[in-house]
Structure formats: C-alpha cells, structure tokens
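re: ur question from the group chat, yeah i did fold both. here u go
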Amino acid sequence: MASSLRGKEALESLRTIPLFSSVSDEDLESIASLLIERRFPAGKTIVEEGLPGDYMYVIREGRVKVTKLSGDGREKILELLESGEFFGEMSLLDRAPRSASVKTLAETRILALARNDFLSVLRRSPDLAMAVIQELTRRLRQVDEQASSLSFQSVEERTKGLLQRMAREEAGGQSRRTPALTHQQIADMIGTSRETVTRVVKDLKEQGWLEQDGKHYLVPAED
C-alpha cells in the first residue's frame, strides 16, 4: 500500500524526523511532495542484499533489522533501526548493488524517495545534504568502533558498549532504556554466541550495572 504525503499535518510529521528537522519549510514542502508512504507487515523484506537500489527509505513508524549473509549463509545483524532513522541511501549515491538486506521486525510505515528525486533534493537543499553527511559520518565512526571492539574488547565490554549505544533517555534521567532485544540479536551484533551473551547479561545484572524489563534493558544514565 502506497500514498503520497500532502498537507500541513504531513509537514509537521516530517519535521519530527531528525533527517528533516533542519530543512527549510520550502524545501520540506518539496520533499513531502516526492515522498511515497508504504506499509509493510512484520517479517517483510524491504531491501535485499545484492539487488539494485532505486529508493532510499525513512522509517516513519516501526522497526527493522539490517542484515548481511556470512560466507556460510548465516544471517548477521548489523543494526536495528527505528522511527526517524533511514536506510538505502548508499546504493543511490554509488549505484552499487545493495550492501545489506533490511527486514521488518514489526508492522512498519516507511517513506520512500526515488533515486532521481533524492539526488535532486540533495543538490538544492544544503541542509538535507548536511544531515545525510552527518549521519553517514556517524555510521562510519560506529563501524570503526565496532571493528576496534571486536579486536581489543572483551565480550562483556562489547555487550555494555552495544547496550549503551542503543539506549535512549528514560523519564527522570536515572537510566536509559534499550529497544526490545533478544540475546541472539545482541550476539549477532557483537560477534559472539547467544550462550555467551546470556552468561554476560546475567553477570551484568549481578554486578548491578544492568536491569531488565521484558525484552528491554535499562543501563545507567551516567554511562
């Protein structure tokens, strides 16, 4: 199901998305007229690794996982993305096949922007271009940090680093809350086994550093 965005409500909704927060009203109206909203059920593949890419996507509601297949065919989770985050822009910039797959973890609404429209908007909107550059830089730094942690950090340090990176501020500021995470997802993202993550999570709870609320984790705000 797809529909285009129109009206004041659509612009106000776009303004809440970090990628568009600093874009001028004039440019935002232009962008809104180009975006197509699509809805996907849980478990649906939006982007498939190795295929050509014609769209970039912004998550309006929902949650997705970014995955890559290893040499032996196992799926490795690279990242979990939620509302306000975007993906699929790399193939539009370098015209290479998709470098990873993106699959929904819940019912998800996304905003799609076609290649030509995306490049045209970047050329005429310095604010949007800068926002994309800043996000790509952040992701590159994150990849560097992950590579370094795999080489030099213990599994406990990698687990703590991942949970800290994914956690968001809670009301009151005493702790920060992660999105829902399984032990297998954590293991995939830090390069270890699910059994090892289960042991490390248990240790962190016993140390008093970590609390759990269902599939969500609470980490200290001061960290």
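okk and heres the other one u asked abt
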Amino acid sequence: MWAANLKIPDFKAFDQRQITQSTKIYDHTGEVLLYNLGENLRRTVVRGDQISRNIKNATVAIEDWDFYNHHGVRPTSILRAFINNTFTTGNTQGGSTLTQQVIKNSLLTGEKKYSRKIKELVLAFKLERAMSKDDILSLYLNESPYGGNVYGVEEASQMFFGKPASDLDLTESAYIASLPQAPTYYSPYGNHKDKLEERKNLVLRRMQELGFISTEEEKVAKNEKVSFLPQDNFTIKAPHFVFFVRQYLEEKYGKEIVDRGGLKVITTLDWEMQKKAEEIVKEFAPGNESSFKAKNAGVVAMDPKTGKILAMVGSRDYFENENDGNFNVTLAHRQPGSSFKPFVYATAFKKGYTPDTVVFDLPTQFQTTCSPIATDPANQTNPNCYAPENYDGKYRGPITFRSALAQSINIPAIEVLYLAGIRNSLSTAADLGISTLGNASRYGLTLVLGGGEVTPLEMTNAYGVFAADGIYNHYSGIERVEDALGAVLEEFTLSPRAVLEPQIARTISDILSDNIARTPSFGANSPLYFPDADVAAKTGTTNDYRDMWVVGYSPNLALGIWVGNNDNSSMEKKVAGFVVAPMWRKIFDAISVNLPKESFERPIYTYQSDLNVKPIMRGIWQGGRTYFIDSVSGKLATDYTPIETKVEKADYDVHSILHWLDKDNPLGPAPANPAADPQYLFWEMPVQTWAATMGYLGVTSTMPISTDDVHTSTSRPIVKIISPGGGMSFKMSDRVVVTFLVPTHIYPLTNSELYVNGIFIGGGDASRGSLSFVPINTKLLPGTATLRVVVYDSNKNRGEVEDNIVLIE
C-alpha cells in the first residue's frame, strides 16, 4: 500500500538540497574552510530539445545501454549488483538505470539500505509511466555532476567547451558522458587525463556497438583532438590538496556521499604553512622560467613523526592555464635523479658496509660485454656500453661512501648500487613507501641515478623515515571525517611501522647533514647548510635535465620540492643545488619558523676501532695489510703509544673494493678468487691505471723497523699529590684544593685533569700545579672519595696518581 502512495519527486528542489547537504573541507584547525563543495553551485536547466543528440546517445551508451527498452529497472543488473554487494567487500556496485539514477539524485538519500532501494525501484516504475524516455533522459542530464561545483550538461558544456549543450559534437559528447561516474577522477583538469581518454574511447566503442555511430565515425572521433577551456578560478583554498582529499573521499565513500552527504572533513593541512609555500613558489617561478626554462614546481611538506601532510602545492599556480596549473605534479610520476641515492646507500649499510668504506671515482665501464677500458673507441659506438660521467666531469680517485653521498658523485653511487644489489635497493625503497618502481628486472645500474619514476609525495614521505629513526608513517591528508549528523566516520590513527634500523636511518641523516663532507661540491655556505639546526638534505637532477629535486628534513619536518616542466621538456643544464635549493631553503625557513628545534639522534660508530673490519671499510684504500705507527716518532707503535698518536697505515697494494671483499658478505672472509666477480676486471683496470699514474705500483713496504721511543715506560711524567693528605675529611660545601708536583718529566708539560670517583671534575695548565672543586656542586655523594690527577706532556705521554679523602655532610 505504501508503494502506491509514493509520489514522484519535486525536481525543482534539487538545487537547495545540494547546497544544504554539501561537503565542507577544512584545514587542521577545523576553522579555515578550504572548500565548500556546494558553494557557488553551477547548474543551468535546459529543455530536452536543447541537448545534442550526440550527448544523449553517448550517455545512454555508457550508462544504460537498454534505456529505451526497459520500464525503469533492469532485473538482471539488480541481481548482479546484489550478488556482488553481498559476497564481496569494498565499494558497493550499482545496478541502476538512468531512471533510477534520476530518482536517487533527486529525492532519496545516499544510504545503502535495501528499503531505500525498494523505494527507488517503485518510484522508477512510476516515473516511467509519468514521463517520456526523452524527458527522463533530459532530467538526468540536467542533474548529473560533471566535476567540482558543476551540475548539468549545459553548464558542463559551457565550462569545458564554451558552447551550449545543443552544439556538442560527437567527440565532445563522448568526453562529457565519461565524467558522471567519477567526475573528480576523470576531470580533464586533473591528474588522470590518460584515463579520461580511455573512457572517452570506451564511450565511442559502445556507441558504435549499439548502432548510434558508424565504425568510421568512431575512428574519426577517437583521433580528434579536443581543447578544453581553462578552468574557472572559483572560491577554493589549497586546490591541489583539496582535490587530492576529494578523490580519496570519493574512492572510500562514493561520489554520491561526497556530493550530497553533508560531510565535515577536517584535514591535516596547515593553512599558514600552505600560504607561505604557495607564495614562495609563485615568487621563484618567473625567475626559474626565464633563467632555467623551468615552468613548474611542486611542494610537499609533512610531519615525519605522523605522516600528516602539512602543505601541498601541485603547481606554480592552480589557475594558470598556460602551464597546465591544475595538474598536481606532487602525485605525478617523475624521475628522481640523485635524490634516489640515499635508499641505495641505506641498503649498503644494511649489508654491513660503513660510511668510511672506500670505492674509486674513476672512468669506469660497467657493461661487462664491452671493453674494460672505459675510453676504448669501440665502446663509444656501442649503445649497450655504459660508462657514465659525474655531473662536473671530474674524477676524485678513492672516496668514502660518506663523501660520495654528501657530494652526490655518480660513479661511486653506481658502484654502491652494485655492492648493495638492485633488488635489495628496490626492496628498501618499497619498505620506505615508494610504490611506483615495479619489478627489479626493469632496471640496471642506472637505477641509482634515478632511472625509475616516483612521486614527490612518496619521496617526501620516504625521506621522513630517515627523520623518524627508521619508522614509516604512511602519508595522510585526513584528520577526521564526520557525517551530516556529527558522527565520526573516520579519524586519524597513528600507525607506525619500523622499516629501517635506527642506526642506519641515523647514519643517512648524519651524512646528509654533514656540511664538511658536502663542501667540496656545494661550497661551505650553500642553501643546504643550517649552522644552527639539524637539517639533512639531498638534491637530484636527471641526466636529461627534465627533473630537479631537493628533498630534506629535520626531526619534525620533511620537505620535498620538484621543479621542471609538465610536458617533460628539458631545462637549462644546471644542477638542482643551483636551481631548486634557494627556493627549498626559503620555504623550509618560512614554514619551520614556529616549530621547536630538535636534534637528530647521533649514530654510534664502532667499526673504526674494530680491526676485524676490513681496512677498505675503515677508510684505508692503500692496501690490505696494515700496521700502526706513532705519529710523533714515525716509528711502529707499542703498548705505550697513546691512542691519540696511533695511526693505522697500510703497505701499498692498491686494488678496487672487489679485490678485498665478497660484495654479498662484506663482513665475511675475503674472496678466494676476486676475479670471479663479473665486474672485477672492469673496476680493477681503472684502479691499476690510476695507481700507476700516482706512483703507487711497485712501492715496497713502508713499515718502519724500529719502535716508538717517544712513548716508553720511562718517558711518562711522574706525579705526586702534595695536598690534601690521604684520609682528610671535607664538608660537601668546602672547597677542596688539590695541589700536585711533577718532579720527573722528559718533555714539556701541557695540561692536567682531575677525576673524583671516576667523574671528570675539571682541568687546567699542568704548570700551575693545582686544581680545585666544591663537592656539593658535583654529582658526588658523602663518603670516601678517590682523587685522581692526570698530567700530560707535549707528546701525549701520561702520568697519574691517586689518593683518598672523606666527604661528609
């Protein structure tokens, strides 16, 4: 009975319903409105005879192929949707005809209840009896969403093509018919134009299959180039970020809920940071374009401790039509250049390599089917040969991992990738959140120079792992989502995942913030240098100068910047440190000004004093047999030689790193047959050539024969405590003056130190003969206390003496 009483909806109420139930997107405070999806709603209703037959046919072909034959519903589609929704998880599948969609869009809520579906079916039958097919189709076309705040085919036609819906040609109609099912995803102003093109072609194919057009018309329309008008500048803040969030919401909740569900969306965006980032990008953009032919830029700022997106600038200006400003480059796949190198070095550190491990920066041929002589003319004409150059054309000989990464030298990085392994390096990148690289079989040794493609969003997120001591927090733009009644649909939850050992993350941070190691290439005062803060940074420039990057971080801010051209054209042949770094630095300073200053946790390096670690991994490249000398006497060190004057040396027996270790087990035994490694000859030959040029070949042992005679059992200073006498008592508030005498010493005295119960109290000039302290001002407690006076001479010989006193309350 209730079904008979259901009335056909009043379609004039459509506009008001859309506005009152519109979704609103806010910044992280919940106070700054970024976008009201219902604000400035655009919809122009036209009669059916004012709508092109092309758009009518295109819509029927893609949305409801049997529209002209059914009576409002298709039972088979309903059954298929019921089975899918009952037995699968994820988004529900619709079985709606165009008639049902008119009912759903006009009267009913978007709730997924079977009672609502029954109402929809009943009303669809009634509407089919009350109106003609063409009128129902016109209602649908007047009410469908076509992206942003645009509803109805007339408004869409004017916005996209500047013409009324009656004048739409076949290709234009196919594009517009492609949009309603996912207008944000398929938007011609978004990041999925390739998918829009695919769907447009699907519409045309369906039209041909249904007899609406001929095969020849389909072919012509597929190949026709259509120009979309520039996007209007409507009221919106942080547009790239807003549409990033909107797409996420549509994928999770469905576009109907997003369009009409009245959601309140609190995002992670910091509007103050966003404004500053946008302003600085606009400030630098004209100069980058005129000086470097770099028209576009993208910025992502994140909190590495949470993964929350703080700012997202997808182009120099969202509404700048000439440069395709609505395209969000932070979500685009771009080559990372040398900014990929930290993932490779981190992989090497995981295998046991150290920051002091030495490789050789020399002209090297890496393709084992070519001549091992990098400069061989035969190699120059063989496209398969691979002998890359450094960005500055220089070669540095032996260089540590630390210096090679800090200075972004290419040839050592390729060697490190070989040592670390391509598959292992890709696995590390994937663990850190890089999802776009695919299978290892796609790559060779060029991977370390940015041979794959990544997104600025994921790169910034991945660098945040280094900032967070190896903890990965997946990026998020959502703080909280509420429905129209205030119920919380989702809320940000921290989901940390340990993906890298803290020691390795800290090592990367230590290197990327090491200004001394970076200085030879970047200078002592580059934009990457922060004298009063812990900030790590890495540049990246692709070989063809199509992409330039700086990605950097402090413990509480990760900031990635990409500069280039959307059409993938090359820029001027400059490195990113010159083009991008000034803008990156200004943004970093501007958005971090109110963040607390935090310091990186320092890595603990134990390998330097571990003689079980091979010399080549402790910075010694001269040879594999080492010995210690005393730096003062120049003779062999003894047990009396102070650690400060011990220097490890090696007999000259210069080889590449592959001579000394198994690349897959660097901490294990040396290889019995180094030449078995396919790269051995190709690395060894340039090293031997260099060693001969430098005069290192044929050098006999330089190990001294005599031993250190500066530091002996008799050369140490002899120290005596004059006062206080043994067992004397002092109040905790008394000043204790310790006087001492050094009656015997060979070399001039330098400094003295005082320890009490092993705690360093202070030091001074040894010639003064006294040191003092007040117990209450130290960490000492009442009771017996052991005084220890240590005296040094000019050659680091050390003499010491102890005595006891008693401390009382």
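fwiw on the second one: The chain has 26 helices and 27 strands. The chain has five domains: 2-21+38-232, 269-334+455-477+508-590, 335-450, 607-694, 718-808. idk if thats what u expected
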